[in-house]
Design goal:
mainly alpha, MetI-like fold
């Protein structure tokens, strides 16, 4: 172990104390704990629900259209959340829609965070022409609302799961790049980074062993807030017919299907809208907690 790794030794020594503090803050924050439980239930329903509740979410059954929740047919099959205008089970579609919403949300966050963090790290550390060009591109993209940009691109490329993830991910790189760039510019001026350079560490070693670990906390907080935003964006695009194409169920196209039946069959649109609201609220509660536990003032107290 060399002198270049001294900051890492200090950080590792603090890890047990940090873990205890994080668990203590979680126990004290009842809202965040509730958000984690709700989010865990939703993820479990998305992953395991279709196996435990095997009604087909896609195949129409015109003999069972617009059945209300908790109703059963002559064969003894019960529809816990009712059926839609084509006789498809709403609960099954909700669970499959949760899977799509989570996949799109997490995948788009991964694409945006990796791309934006890489650009923020490089531009913040080296500066120069690349920094100027990247930030001007970021300013230009910020001038266009994300949903409008996504609508324009998807209208050209066509609706599909891959296109949706790519568009939402790429449109979200700006916030990661700008925040991480500022953090990197601050960290690169600190004494241990200067010492690493003087001792002969390469730029790549300095960036990935010393600068990035001390700048990445804000990116985690941004990713949590972006997850909720992108899930809402996915639902909005699916509602407009630019998301995952039918008959694949998503919460957005379920809302679109049910808007014509609000008075006759309220459950078709209300239940996916409620599921989206609860999921976004849970993600935001967890995000607020993550923001608190990554605050240096709290961790150093």
């Amino acid at each position: 172990m060399t002198m270049l790794d001294a900051p890492l030794l200090v950080e590792r020594a603090r890890e047990p104390r940090r873990s205890v503090l994080i668990l203590t803050l979680l126990r004290q924050d009842k809202a965040a704990l509730l958000g984690m439980i709700v989010l865990g239930v939703i993820c479990a329903a998305a992953l395991l629900g279709p196996m435990l509740y095997p009604l087909d979410p896609v195949m129409p059954n015109l003999a069972q259209t617009l059945r209300p929740p908790l109703s059963c047919d002559d064969a003894g099959i019960c529809y816990l959340a009712g059926t839609d205008q084509l006789g498809r089970d709403v609960l099954s579609r909700l669970m499959h829609g949760a899977r799509l919403s989570l996949i799109v949300g997490f995948a788009a966050v991964a694409v945006g965070s990796i791309l934006g963090s890489a650009l923020g790290l490089v531009t913040g550390y080296f500066g120069g022409v690349l920094d100027t060009v990247t930030m001007r591109l970021a300013d230009a993209q910020l001038a266009i609302p994300t949903i409008m940009l996504a609508i324009a691109v998807l209208a050209v490329l066509g609706p599909s799961l891959a296109n949706l993830i790519a568009v939402l991910g790429i449109s979200g790189w700006v916030v990661y790049a700008r925040i991480l760039r500022v953090n990197v510019m601050s960290v690169r001026a600190r004494e241990f980074v200067t010492a690493a350079r003087v001792l002969g560490a390469s730029p790549l070693r300095v960036m990935f062993r010393h600068v990035l670990p001390n700048s990445i906390d804000a990116t985690i907080v941004i990713a949590t807030s972006q997850l909720a935003t992108l899930m809402v964006a996915e639902a909005a695009l699916s509602f407009l017919g630019l998301g995952v194409p039918p008959p694949t169920p998503t919460w957005g196209n379920m809302l679109s299907d049910g808007r014509s039946y609000l008075t006759a069959a309220w459950w078709i649109a209300t239940l996916p809208g409620l599921a989206l609201t609860v999921t976004v609220l849970a993600v935001n509660l967890v995000g607020d907690w993550i923001r608190d536990v990554t605050d240096p003032k709290i961790l150093r107290a």
